[in-house]
Amino acid sequence: MTQLTGQPTTDDDVVHLTVPADGGYLGVLRTATAGLAARLQFALDEIEDLRIAVDEACAMLLAIATRDAELECRFTVTEDALTVEVTVPTVRGATLPSESSFAWKVLTALTTAAFADAADGRATISLLTRRSSGY
Fold first, then answer.
1. What gap in Å lies between CA 99 and CA 45, rounded to an integer?
2. 11-130 sits in which CATH class?
3. Cα separations in angstroms, 46 against 14, 32, 35, 36, 107
4. Residue ranges per domain, the chain?
5. What is the pLDDT of residue 8?
6. Predicted confidence band at 135 (pLDDT cuts at 50, 70, 90)?
7. How far apart are CA 98 and CA 104, in angstroms?
8. Residues with Cβ < 8 Å from 3, sequence gap 6 or more?
9. CB–CB of 86/63 below 8 Å?
């Protein structure tokens, strides 16, 4: 089951991508996000919102990533939702932006739900987007 949706998944419903923690590789994650959202028949504006949210989440994580780190991205596909979890090893003492920050407001405005966790030298941001009804 996914943490944010509570829906069961199978291995066929999960895509893992690992890229260097470098802004130059974020296009790979944005493209994967758009492709999976399109597969779920998300509307074009929903796809673009999710791409922007993934980009913003990655930017938050890149700011606190260790040198030569890798971004691990896990996409979980359910019948009507896409969950994107991005994780990175962090520098000592790193903290994510507060939930009152502009960056966090962007994430929550563009997705159905957003969650962040930083512990044991790793930070994860999880984004859930449900497809609009009527599709």
1. 24
2. alpha beta
3. 20, 14, 12, 12, 13
4. 11-130
5. 52
6. very low
7. 7
8. 83, 115, 126
9. no
Write out the two tokens for 102.
């502009």
Token code pair at residue 18: 């690992």
Would you state the structure tokens that stand for residue 34, as one six-digit string? Answer: 């758009």
Strands 122-130 and 70-77: unpaired
HEC secondary structure over the chain = CCCCCCCCCCHHHEEEEEEECCHHHHHHHHHHHHHHHHHCCCCHHHHHHHHHHHHHHHHHHHCCECCCCEEEEEEEECCCEEEEEEEEEECCCCCCCCCCCHHHHHHHHHCCEEEEEEECCEEEEEEEEECCCCC
pLDDT greater than 80 at residue 110: yes
Handedness of CA 97, 86, 28, 43 (dihedral sign): negative
Phi, psi angle pair for 76, to nearest 5°:
-115, 125
What lies within 8 Å, CB to CB, of 9 at 6+ separation is 1, 2, 76, 77, 78
Average pLDDT of the segment spanning 84-101: 92
Question: Is the confidence at residue 65, as pLDDT, over 90?
Answer: yes
